[in-house]
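User: quick one, fold this
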Amino acid sequence: MTKTHYKNEIKSDLDRIRGATRAISLGRILQEEHPEIRDMYREGKGHREIAHELGINSTFGVTERIAESSVYYALKGHTGVFRIRAYEGLLGSLELQSLGRNHHKETNYRQIREKVGIHGLTLKKRRKNGSQGGRRSYALKRGLFSLKPEDLQENGKKSGKNAYKERRGIHALSPEERKRNALMAVKAKGQFPISEGERTYILQLYKDPRYHHRESWYKGRPSYSLISQAVEERFGVKRTQASLKHIIRRGSSK
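Assistant:
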């Protein structure tokens, strides 16, 4: 990273901090001047829609992003960071979480339908943006890149233990659900999950002398090309030598 680029990154961070402090302060003002924000949010209107209807950006001379963030703070409140006095939100935390989940779902559905935000980007563009964000975080030692390897390992262990204890994520699934999800993942990659009939057939071919090499250094050993051809003829799936070895190794260990 060049010195000029680094300075630009620092300036960008400072601009974000200034924007956040402006939104926090404005959120407290909105609570006093527009308490109807509470009911507007309950009716299903999002932060951006509320900010637009109330004309916050033009009334207070702020950007649309700050106007939207100020609605967020008016609803949620402020904890006291940035040396700005803390204040309670217009909604309690439990109600805010419940409404937030509903808003999040509806927003996602709308963005998918209208192809906006990340849903409007091609897969190539998403990867490029993710790569740029990762390099920026690495250069500035943000997030995970600010931690030592031992800290990362310890955090990973704690997260795993907490997830297991609270039955979250994969730990909340039954064995049947895990198996179903694994099959879905295999299909999503364009691969073909193996059936018990195919597995049994492969193991039979592996032991059948007719599917062994008949000459060369490999005489008497299984011919994976012959096995693959036979499997493709019967099941319509072409298995690679590596996948056949994996299937046979797992089948032989049972």
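User: anything notable?
Assistant: Residues 3-33 form the longest helix (31 residues).
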